[in-house]
Design goal:
By secondary structure, the protein is of the alpha+beta class. Helices cover 31% and strands 28% of the residues. The chain is globular and about 80 Å long.
Length: 408
Amino acid sequence: MVVVVAGTVRSTGQYADKTPVLEIHVPVAHAAGLTAERDGAVRVQLLLGDEWYKGRVRATPENDYVWVSPTVTTLSGERSSLGRVLSNLRVRANDRVQLKVRGSKIRVLDKWGYGLGTRAARLNAAIGDEPKTLSAICRDARYHLKNSASSHLTSLQKRGHILHTPAGYVAAQPDGGQPAEDGVIAERILRGVAQVLGTDLHGTFQSGVVRELIGLSQGSFTPILKGMRDEPGSAPSVRAEYRGLFHMISPGQYRLTDRGREVVGALSTPPPTASTLAEAAVRGGGAGFGTTENNALVERAACDAVEADYLARGWTVRSVERDRCGYDLHCLKGAAEEHAEVKGVGGTEESFIITAGEVRKAQDDPLFMLYVVLSARSPSRRLVRYTGAVFLARFALLPIQYRAVVKP
């Protein structure tokens, strides 16, 4: 029996030669038929381009996805990496792929079901969210047979994968350009923008931070965001109530229009005070508000859980808690590196104490990762992971104490 599941290529860092460390992630909800064991690794064979490789599919209870590990070997035993092989096949981080699964054998195809490295896949990779002419697509795909390319694009258009606009060919949404869920995605984008801006509705925001904050794929997020601009260009149309809310200052950098400030302002709530934050933390079991003994047990359980998560994904972990360097765990996987700060929470409320040094790390260290472990001492604990930028955008930082010095 053959099962086809959709996945996304994700980057977890870089090797020494700047090649990305890549994995293929499949949401657990969509992974039926994909061989995997919770808390384990299953050996599989992967067809990448025209060559078979040995690899592994991994899963853990803490993650809501199953993933193909970044290390692969040829059938003759030569060690390689998924990142190097996919990069050579012109597959990049955040690209969508299809996995055609037959038992332990998996054929990795491009987002529309074509073999990696084929002429069709090269043409498909050149079609993105911005309209391109046939000549531009052929140039980017390094493909010189325009008649053949035109026939292929016509086939993609008939299958609903692309649109042919006056400005050129552009990747389509599943229903041909106006996603049925555009309102749901637009609402999520608005709430993400509201979280990033807070009360500063005249400030600017980065689209990448908003996308990561609300957890949407590039393909779902970008067309709707562009449709919400005051100058949407050739982006798929969104509902009238979501149009004209954002103004693009530069690629990836936005601010609200006058109408956008009205809409986002209605979603914003006054920031909590330090006292209400502390009260909420105590009620919900936030970190740092219990007894000293209990806090120590919660923190230890949280660090153990995060370390186990890294080890299960093939990382090596060294504790640097005593070094007071702004994070707890120094994590390495090949050339990839992460600096993990761990916050254990006894209950389910995402509130915790964080030092000024740790906040500076989140601001200045691109390798910084914040793990919030909810219900840390419970078997049903949950790990939530934030990059430094998303942490700073998502959380309000409120003073709960001051250092007093005599004025000069």
